User: What shape does this take?
Amino acid sequence: MGIGAQLLRRRPLVLASALLALAALGLAASVWAHAARERVAPTPHFAGARIADFPVSYGAPGAIAEVPDPLGGGARALRLTVFDRDVEPLTPTDNPRAQLVSPDLVGAGANVWLATEFLVPESYPEVDPGGWVTLVEVYGPPFRGTSPWRLELAGDSLQWQRNSSYEFDTPFKQPLVRGRWIGVLLHERFGRHGFVEMWIDDRPVEFFGAGGRGRNADPATRRLKMATMDRSNDEGLNSVRIGQYRQAGMFAKGTIYFRGLEVGPTRASVAPR
Assistant: This one.
């Protein structure tokens, strides 16, 4: 058999090999593009215990103050008092707020740990069953709608709610304990294929456990896989926000306390709470 005939017989194999090579290159390009979009970005450390530590704050004049711990003991706390009238132009939206905002330090692919403590006084008004008071969230540009998740007050409960991407379900909910400090430790991977873990008063949260409500009988888990970055916050670095941001029209005045905020790349980098 001549060389020409041999090449003709081998041509299908050559073409198949070439197509496989192109497919592999295409897959590699797709993986590379996905990694570029969600590359692992280290999260800088941030610690805020005083108002001046936070680069951004929202609130009416005097709404946020440094005061003695309301339970005594000599420690200091951040007092956030919000009136129902604390809306535009005093604050950025038509729902009243007082918030402290970390630097923009949460990037795509980042592992983020945050720790804070808050206290809801016995005198804090009852929250409407259908109302909300946001305490903690991670949010950023383009600020389209609500953030992917929020730790908040609703009715007589403390709950963790997601946004419209998950039909505003509540994977975690427990009765609100007033008049004492409540510690929050949260770990998330920031991305479209992210996850969240959380501890309340050093106890791990079981999402979709007792009190949680999902969309389709979601299984209970301590590591909730979800999009922590979506169309609401996917156009730049995000920040961590603590405060009192609430639905307008529920009550005239309310005060909530915080003991600051720590953000970092590892659990060891944030102070134990």
